[in-house]
Here is the input.
Amino acid sequence: MASALTDAVAVEAILDDTRVGVWQFDVATRQLTASDAATVQLSGVTPQALRGAWRRIARQASRQPQFEVELPWTDGTSRRWLMLRGRRDPQRQQISGMCVDMTRRVRAELLVREQAVLLDTLARGIAPRDCLAVLLQAVDRLKPGLRTAILSTPSSPSCNNYAIGHGMAEELTSLLQRAPTAPLPAGFGMSGDASTLDDSARAWARQWQDAAQPHGIRACAALPVSKDGQAPHAWLVMCLADARDLSGWEQEVAGFTTRLATLVLEREQQHAALEQAADAVGHALHDAERERRRFKAFLDSSPDLAYVFNLEHRFTYANRALLQMWGKTEEEALGRNCLELGYPDWHAAMHSREIEEVIATRQPIRGDVPFEGPLGRRMYDYIFVPQLGLDGQVEAIVGTTRDVTERSEHEAERARSESLLRMLVDELQHRTRNIMSVVRAMASRTLATSSDLVDFSSRFDARLDALARAQGLLSRLGELDRVHFDTLLRGELAAHVDLSSHGSQILLDGPADIALRSGTVQPLAMALHELATNAVKYGALRQQGGMLHVRWSVMHVDGPGGGGLRLLVEWEEHGVADLPEDPTQIRGGGAGRELIEKALPYQVGARVEYAFAPDGLRCSILLAISQQQE
Here is the structure.
């Protein structure tokens, strides 16, 4: 075995072997011993800064055993920051420490600070081009002396290229703005293969080279500004004094600049889109006014009576035929109710009751009524229809009235009403047959997977209740209404657990009022029932530490089978401690899983992923929803 190393040799071996820059200073001999890494790091510090650092170390070491001093240094191309940490050993008259390169942390802090400045500038509503100028000023602070520019090349033919520079001569910025091609290295005539350029691009490259060299620019780096791999809509141009690759810090600054430039240019695109939208709104208002005049002309040419009530039962519109029947002008009639216009008390009271009924039920109402006017006593058939706002509430009542004194017209109306009634009865029979088919299939499958009649009765009753809840939601809807997903989900969870007492275990995360297609309500309700049942019996809601997280969102899908809006539901259970190695062995889970994995795709074309993680179930459902969302 080799003889033991002396202390000096051991220290030297440790210093040379370690990756951290370490050093040792002998106070008595004033000798400094340093590892290779520490030697390299300390050699980059200017003598003046190094002498000041040693003086601070001596002062701190004299007052307390441990010390820490920060000082800048350079590796030859970039500014770096060094932290000297260590302690003094008074018995051995030695100061020992290490050099910690703090460059990455300091640079990260600089980038965060500059990013905050730019984001604050954006938030204050400063114009995007001014924000780009602020960004280039930040580049100059991060890498002093680096001349940069941003060339915006919008894809819209209505927008022109523009360039913003910092530290560059105005003639270079103006010339860059006229670049005929994307500013690839070859396009600058500095590097790359210029043979790929056309004649106009080569001519521009010669102009750029002739203009740039007198300003000490020998090379340029052109970096694309784009989002998520899309075609670049701008370029970051970095001008260098010599032909070389970008340093590591320059690459970080370039990446920082292109990312923030992407945000700024997106804001610029949004501003342009808002301006286009404002123009579109102006055109739409103009078109709407033109359509209003056209609609008014159409109604005034109709022999039928057309009118609109507000919620206070007062007329806000009456067409020419109605005004003639009353013998009044618009100024005399509008803003008044039936009683104020001379209708008999019983007649005015009847229409007031009918208007209130339309408001309450949001359903049309129809009737016949005689009226004595300038044209004599006539029999009229009328209909009041609710005009619904975006919130689904009645905002006005639209009515039309037709002279049906001739009984043949009245009989024709009655025949059409009877035909409509037959159609409604046929639809009711069709829906009844569909529900019976669902119940029959549900009973058959539940019986096949039940252990005994008691098990069958319990599970079949639960599934019937889920089906009844879905049908109850559908039956309470108006003609234009839709069942909302969050209502359906909360209804199913409330049927299994007390949401107030399980609030800490259940997290529901998604937008409200997502309208479902009527045909998907029943299958989706059954699937949610099965998921909730399994969570209560075997999953996250069976134990105190479990957590159920349900997220849902709306996305637009394009595809060969047809695109449109889709609802993505993600059911995740966590903290299920006693999940068996093979979760498919859970009793009764096969039928519910088959309903989710097979029935949903077959009935509504859903895409389902159903799997078990080590701590619980994961299930995602993607299905089409109503394209008319509120």
Confidence is low (pLDDT under 50) at residues 1-18.
